[in-house]
Amino acid sequence: MSLLTANSHSLSEEELDEYSDGTVKLRNSNIELMDQDILYHLALGSESHDLQEMFGDVKFVCMGGTPKRMENFAHFIMDEIGYKLPAGTQLQDISAYSYRYSMYKVGPVLSVSHGMGTPSVSILMHEMIKLMYHAKCIDPIFIRIGTCGGIGVEGGTVIITEDALDGQLRNSHEFTILGETIHRPAKLDKKLARELKSLASADDPYDTIIGKTLCTNDFYEGQGRLDGAFCEFTETDKMNYLEKLRDNGVVNIEMESTIFAALTHHAGIKAAVVCVALLNRLNGDQVNAPKEVMHEWQQRPQILVSRYIRKVLAQHGQLKSLFGHQGSIKSPRRFKLVQQESQAHD
Q1: pLDDT in tens, 115-130
Q2: What percent of the chain has pLDDT over 90?
Q3: Which CATH number fits domain 29-322: 2.60.40.1730, 3.10.350.10, 3.40.50.1820, 3.40.50.1580?
Q4: Nucleoside phosphorylase domain location, by residue (predicted)?
Q5: Which residues make Cβ contacts (< 8 Å) with residue 107, sequence separation at least 6?
Q6: How far is CA 195 from the centre of its chain?
Q7: Residue 214: closest CA among 166, 146, 153
Q8: Could you read off the pLDDT of 275-332 as tens digits, one per residue?
Q9: C-alpha 99: how far from chain center
Q10: Where are the domains of the chain?
Q11: Can you tell me the distance from the alpha carbon of 189 to that of 99, in angstroms, rounded to the nearest whole number?
């Protein structure tokens, strides 16, 4: 059977039944045959760490581009859900020894940086999905919190992705595996998107909307910018393209949504993307908002996501002072090996 036939289809009813217990299943039988599954880019391992003890209570995996943003979100969500650290301790970057991504655990919430662009997100997603599997997490929800360029919407607008589209306006992500090109549906959970939208407040001094998101492989030419090192199209060409996007219901552009949607859907994980627009691309290419304004704008998606997390925890009677585990080492020898492998692996 070709890769195209085997891997590009959506989950069937029979496959969905496999997820009925809420745990994450892997579509890779090789993992069970391995002595240890080292998550290189997270500096974790299935035998060096007690992943179920460390992460088994995780219900929300929140991802964003930069380590600093996700560290800030970790502190923010800690206050929002009433999480209390043991006396004399502080939040730790669990993946510090990877030197690639940062990860903070706040009770049932993981706050993880994913870098910029689909390749970086793809690496992290594979290892985060495997982490959920090894930790035996039940019904985890993945939410990407990011920034974007708006199309016909002003800077500061919060945008919840309805459909993630690639550069050719296809609702899928293209992979090349063993020389074959395949497409996996880039589907997000629309019920989750509506739930998030319902938590926007009339008192918010900004709009929160739902729409289609264009995911590109490039910040400059791929997004029709005139200010890159290269530009072989005119401003008229650019404006015609952006208007075409708007006519097709696209309200923002970023560089991560299709891979995030494709891999969560392929794993049977409920997911959403919530971004804030930093500018209206119909008015220009460069972000000129003052630094303090940008900082406040970037908090807006975090506020919406925190409302959702608080709501879900409250529904389950879990919105209270929470005491979590910051780490459990099963094997000091394997722990050291994982650190060395993560530092050496390119």
Answers
A1: 999 999 999 999 999 9
A2: 82
A3: 3.40.50.1580
A4: 59-310
A5: 57, 78, 81, 83, 322, 323, 324
A6: 18
A7: 166
A8: 999 999 999 999 999 999 999 999 999 999 999 999 999 998 887 644 443 445 566 6
A9: 19
A10: 29-322
A11: 32
